[in-house]
Amino acid sequence: MSPNKERNTTNPMSATQTKYPRLFSPLQVGKVTIKNRSIMGSMHTGLEELDDGHIRMAEFFAERARGGIGLIITGGISPNEEGGLGAKLSNADEVARHKVITDAVHAADPDVRICMQVLHTGPLAPHDKCVAPSPVRSPIARYVPNELDENGIEKQLSDFANCARCAKDAGYDGVEIIGSAGYLLSTFLVQKTNLRTDKWGGSYENRMRFPLEVVRRVRAAVGDDFIVIFRIAAMDMLQGGMSWDEIVQLAQELEKAGVSIISTHFTWHESAVPTIATMVPRAAFTSVTGRLKKLVSVPVITSNRINMPDVAEAVLARGDADLVSMARPMLADSQLMKKAAEGREDEINTCIACNQACLDHTFGGNQEVSCLVNPRACHETQLVYKPTTAPKRIAVVGAGPAGLAYCTIAAERGHTVDLFDQSDEIGGQFNLAKRIPGKEEFHETLRYFKRQLEVTGVRVSLGQPVDADFLRSGGYDEIVIATGIRPRVPDIEGIDHPSVIGYIDAIKGAKPVGDRVAIIGAGGIGFDVAELITHAGKSSALDIDTFAKEWGIDFANHPRGGVTGIEPVVEASPREVWLLQRKSSGVGRGLGKTTGWTHRLTLNRKGVRMIPSVSYQRIDDYGLHCLIDGEPKTLEVDTIILCAGQDPLRDLHDELVNESAHVSLVGGAFEASELDAKRAINQAAYLAAQV
Ligand code: FAD
Ligand code: NAP
Ligand code: SF4
Fold first, then answer.
1. Residue 390 · residue 671 · CB < 8 Å
2. Which CA distances in Å does 73 have to 81, 117, 348, 675?
3. How would you classify residue 414: left for phi > 0, otherwise alpha for psi between -120 and 50, otherwise beta?
């Protein structure tokens, strides 16, 4: 930590008492005290399955415990093989591994509580032994599940109880049983996934029987002093999902069965409504928890898009919940609660809900989870920012995400860093991203970096293009070129026609965009430009009513699943738009695993024509001439926006590479192909940790 950081620390108690009185008040749950109202919600990080995962998780969670969180909930752990996860807890060897985690957390702060999530994925398990109440295949599952018979049900119940007992032996303060999302317990509850006619199906009383019996068995196995949380789908976002009355009845029965806390979840994985992506307004769903809270006497947890302490405090002040869950925000900044307590909110590295390094990695295959804005997340033992023993003078050219990450980490470690950018604001291309409706959170990353530059003492010179002579004369030990990219101009006849503009001018509004527009290139930037120029009215990310209308959610009347079933209402596009690519694959296939579908659906609803297999022929006064699937076609457009990818901008590097100073490239300047901010920040962080 830099000396500046110490100086800026204010009296924790006064800030806490005046600004977030509810967030920092303790909560008694039976005999257990939770020291404040913040919870790190469960996230499967992939560490659970690694050989050394328990050691990495120990440090991952301990760092969050030191950062002031009240209660940690681990990623999901299965009670048995059928549960579907690589990580399970059912025997003494596994107990010993988990004890490493709980010991580390309790050593970091004995007042922090840690609960283990028991997750039985049921029909979503990725193997042919998967089980469910009925052989109903989920639209997102690989296998038709095996119908549980009476013995199978008894085995699952006793495995849940054994798993909870093992969690207690391992030193956890409690367990969270997940009863939502399309996993085993929720498939008993919902009519369309439970077709049974025996005592485990049919009437709602029968459909509730299995989840309630799980709670009873778990409670009997762990005794009274152990926290048992049940995660309920307070809105499952399914046509024909659970009704409000059923949710309330379940919550009240769970209470009688012995749960200590009810946690509200929104969505099943198969539902076509975004509930945590960046286009979802902050705290959009907490009113639903608020309604449930009035009807039960155990504490309730709310969640989804609560990413800053003021949002959490407002949720508690409205009476929407007793506890606030922040999962991804704990990846983005392990010290969030500590910074809030010390009045250093402007130093919080805010989760921008992009999903790019967390959920996209979880659901996208074999990539370890991390965080776009904080590459240390889940890599605490590997990426360490140690104070330097050999301070250097470093020049960083370019204040985009790569340059900002590099210089703030290098300066925090004790190097003297000068940062230059030709623009009069920091942020590089993030200044374009933040203008896209639905990407307003990107402002937070720039706010964070602006403050980090001050805190770490980086000397910043803006509005100043830097050349090689300037850098030579500076006498620097290290020069870091983070100058980003130059947009690619494709080689198409007539590319100089006045109707052709670049994406930077289109986004900044520097050149007019007509009523009929062709976008050349359908990558992330092509999609964002299409979103911007077809947008009308309020940004749904900033207005819960608009968001609800756009995605067919009815918060007020809560029909089955919470969704209306009628066609969502989207403001009509003021323009006719063609979004084009040369590849024959589906347009938008390369977008984020967990968010790409929302972008494709939104543009579809606004009538954007997304066309693959395009061969560009010529641009002239008639428009864009091309072959589509080999057929000649003229798109009679008045504007053509180029979003055709980018090339690295590294002229400075090439000029300086033979100088005595060590010169390195980072971010887009290093490699523009498949560049995004995740890669730019990650690369910069590892370089700055080593310099
Ligand atoms: P840049 O951000 O390009 O920064 C380079 C900086 O160098 C600029 O500030 C420039 O002014 C400065 N510079 C250049 N030459 C000189 C010089 N000679 N002297 C001084 N200064 C100089 N990525 C994601 O991960 N997720 C997203 O959702 C996302 N959305 C995006 C939306 C849009 C509309 C755009 C345009 C990009 C988006 N990106 C997104 C991409 C992301 O912004 C880039 O990958 C990232 O900004 C690259 O960072 P960088 O630091 O390498 O370069
Ligand atoms: P990109 O994703 O590589 O897309 C470039 C597009 O241009 C592709 O559709 C490509 O498709 C086309 N193209 C490439 N060369 C061309 C040529 N010579 N002529 C015509 N078309 C050409 O890059 P980007 O859209 O510029 O985005 C830059 C980076 O920012 C991306 O890597 C992306 O990850 C990141 N970003 C992310 C998000 C997000 O939401 N996560 C949003 C915006 C940007 P064809 O070759 O098939 O035509
Ligand atoms: Fe949040 Fe994005 Fe980081 Fe995930 S990767 S924690 S969504 S900022």
1. no
2. 21, 6, 21, 33
3. left
Best residue for ligand 3 mutational test, from 325, 328, 676 (most atoms within 8 Å of Cβ): 328
Q: What digits encode the pLDDT tens for the residues 137-176?
A: 999 999 999 999 999 999 999 999 999 999 999 999 999 9
Paired residues of 579 in beta bridges: 519, 610
With 0-12 / 13-18 / 19 or more C-beta atoms within 10 angstroms meaning exposed / middle / buried, residue 630 is: exposed
Residue 233 region by backbone torsions, left for phi larger than 0, else alpha for psi between -120 and 50, else beta: beta
Site to probe by mutation for ligand 2, drawn from 495, 581, 640 as the one with most ligand atoms within 8 Å of Cβ, is 581
For residue 4, is pLDDT > 50? Answer: no
Q: In the numeric block, which tokens belong to residue 321?
A: 């919940």
d(CA 320, CA 604): 35
The angle at the Cα of 682, spanning 527 to 366, to the nearest 5 degrees, equals 75
Contact 404, 455 (CB under 8 A): no
Give the whole-angstrom CA distance, residue 439 versus residue 436.
5
pLDDT at 98 over 60: yes
CB 22 within 8 A of CB 316: yes
Neighbour count for residue 237 (Cβ, 10 Å): 21
Kindly list the catalytic residues.
183
The answer to which of 6-15, 97-106, 429-438 has the lowest mean pLDDT is: 6-15
Closest protein CA for atom 15 of ligand 1: 483
The contacts of residue 7 (CB under 8 Å, 6+ apart) are none
